[in-house]
Fold:
Amino acid sequence: MADPVTMRIVIYKNTKKPSDGKSILISPNWSKAQVLKLCSENLGVKAKKIFNESGHEINSFTKITEGSNLYASQGENFQVIGFSPRPSKNYVLCVLGSAAVGKSAIIQRYVQNKFVRDYDPTIEDYYKKIAIIDGETVPLSIFDTAGMEDYYPLIDEWIDKKDGFILVYSMDIKDSLQKLNIFIDKIKHRYSGHGKSDPVVVIVGNKIDIPNREITTEEGRRFADNCNRKHFEVSAATGAGVDDVFNSIVRELKTRREEKPVNSSTSWWSSCNLL
Structure:
């Protein structure tokens, strides 16, 4: 019988700059051998050791918390660049949008500086990047999601415990901008009035490199202004504007940490009117 107590963690290969993370479910009661086997299957390596973000080898999972980032080693010591006994705040971001708007392409351009031209539908994946923003090392976990409507029942799970959201539409898919209302509404109900800190939410138009647009810059700006959110236009193909999106989110999150919490009545949700 399956263990009813499970938690979701994200596992990465133990490399200097880990990128493609895999989201898995484990039980804190599992043995190390059970977790190593699951890591090996998901990462395609022969995992022999597991490290936490502080570089300590893990032999028991009873103290691991939901959403933890772990690193699977094939026997080598901890390799992740930026290791510190007191790691910087790890921000968890989520990228949402309808199918074929280029969510995965934007993430891979940012994380690996490469463009994946062929559209390969994603269900869910985590990516890891150690970013240098304003001279500071910032660990980022970026959650990629499915755009197919069949997976929309998973939205509530996707948006839980995230620091920021990147809502993506494509300039060559006319209804992809209006479909962002689905995600905005879900985020609004998840975070508004529950004593939770508002996540940073930005609106991003992809494919500025294409010659014929179905959605104009003005339409995108008007949509973002309606929710009092920042608007960006990017190209996953060329990389234009991609870094600006992530840098802006991290800067706003850092600013919020340094300031006193705002009163809930000033939450941006109160001025967000769905179109």
